[in-house]
Structure formats: structure tokens, C-alpha cells
């Protein structure tokens, strides 16, 4: 009788430990996805802020060359340039957005006019390298130069 009782306790303990382990693994996975989504949103906001800075620089530019942003595909790198040269290089990871990259952006560069608009509508994709299902699209509106975030 005592042996069966100990065996039953061991089986119950193993069952409880496996249930708690399963719950912990599921919780960690959901938390990781939330963190990656936040990183993606932070990277999008950071990039939009930099685009607005370029728009403002062009509004006060004294020449027609104007400022532009060039994106490096499959990377977290983008540069600010004026004329033919690169003035500043930025990385999305510099603002705590590790793992976020530009994906499938076949753009030469984004050029803003003196009024802050872009020549034509453009879409920029941001993706999290560790979770390829997390993608944000940044849409640049041609006339207003506004940038909208969509999933």
C-alpha cells in the first residue's frame, strides 16, 4: 500500500511540473513576439522621425540638390545624403531595435521636394529578422509627404 501511494505522488508531481512547464513556454513565446512587435514599431517611428527631419532640411535648403534617404535592403542601415554624398549613416539597431531590417525595398533613394512631398507613392517594408511574419509597411504619400504605418 505504501509503494502505490509514493508512485501516485510521483506521477502527480510529474504531471503538475509538465503542465507548468508548458504554460511557461507558451507565455515566453508570446512575450517574445510582443517584444519583437514593439521593436518593429519603435523602428518605424524612428525612421519616420528621420524622414521628417529630411523633409524639414529640404524646406530650408538653399540649393536644388536637396537631401535624400537611401535604404540598404536586407539591413538595418539607411543614410542621409545631399547631392551625391553621404552625410549621415543611421542603423535601426542604434535605437534599440535589434533584429529589425528593411526588406524588399528596391528604392534608389527617397527624395523630398522643397514643399516636403515625394515624387511618387512609395512603400517601405520593415521586418523582424527573428520572426518573418512580423512586417510593417510604411506608405509615403506623394503630394503631402505623409508617412502612414500599416500592417
Protein architecture, described:
The chain has 151 residues and is an alpha+beta fold. The protein has a single domain, classed as minor pseudopilin epsh domain (minor pseudopilin epsh fold, 3-Layer(bab) Sandwich), CATH 3.55.40. It is 38% helix and 29% strand. The chain has one helix and eight strands, in the order H-E-E-E-E-E-E-E-E. The strands form two sheets. Strands 3-2-1-5 form a four-stranded antiparallel β-sheet, with helices on one face. The chain has a four-stranded antiparallel β-sheet with strand order 4-6-7-8. The longest helix is centred in the first third of the chain and has 58 residues, at 2-59. The mean pLDDT is 81.
Quick summary:
The protein has about 150 residues and is an alpha+beta fold. The chain has a single domain, classed as minor pseudopilin epsh fold (3-Layer(bab) Sandwich), CATH 3.55.40.10. The protein has one helix at about 1-60; strands spanning about 65-70, 75-80, 85-90, 100, 110, 120-130, 130-140, 145-150.
Q: Which class do the helix and strand fractions yield?
A: alpha+beta
How many domains? The number is 1
Radius of gyration: 24 Å
Biggest sheet features: 4 strands, antiparallel
Count up the helices: 1
Do you know the CATH topology?
minor pseudopilin epsh fold
Low-confidence stretches: none
Strand order of the largest sheet: 3-2-1-5
Q: Kindly estimate the percentage of residues that lie in beta strands according to DSSP.
A: 25-35%
Q: What is the annotated CATH architecture?
A: 3-Layer(bab) Sandwich
| Arithmetic mean pLDDT | 81
- Please name the fourth-level CATH homologous superfamily: minor pseudopilin epsh domain
Shape verdict = rod-shaped
The SSE string, one letter per element, is: HEEEEEEEE
- Record field, number of beta strands: 8
Q: How widely separated are the two ends?
A: 62 Å
The helix content, as a percent range, equals 25-40%
CATH top level assignment = Alpha Beta
Amino acid at each position: 500500500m505504501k509503494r502505490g501511494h509514493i508512485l501516485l505522488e510521483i506521477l502527480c508531481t510529474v504531471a503538475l511540473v509538465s503542465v507548468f512547464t508548458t504554460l511557461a513556454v507558451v507565455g515566453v513565446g508570446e512575450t517574445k513576439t510582443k517584444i519583437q512587435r514593439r521593436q518593429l514599431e519603435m523602428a518605424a517611428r524612428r525612421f519616420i522621425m528621420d524622414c521628417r527631419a529630411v523633409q524639414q532640411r529640404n524646406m530650408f535648403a538653399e540649393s536644388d540638390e536637396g537631401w535624400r534617404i537611401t535604404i540598404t535592403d536586407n539591413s538595418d542601415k539607411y543614410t542621409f545624403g545631399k547631392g551625391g554624398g553621404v552625410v549621415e549613416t543611421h542603423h535601426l539597431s542604434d535605437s534599440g531595435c535589434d533584429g529589425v531590417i528593411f526588406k524588399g525595398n528596391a528604392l534608389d533613394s527617397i527624395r523630398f521636394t522643397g514643399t516636403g512631398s515625394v515624387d511618387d507613392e512609395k512603400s517601405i517594408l520593415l521586418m523582424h529578422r527573428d520572426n518573418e511574419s512580423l512586417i510593417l509597411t510604411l506608405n509615403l504619400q506623394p503630394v503631402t509627404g505623409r508617412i502612414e504605418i500599416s500592417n
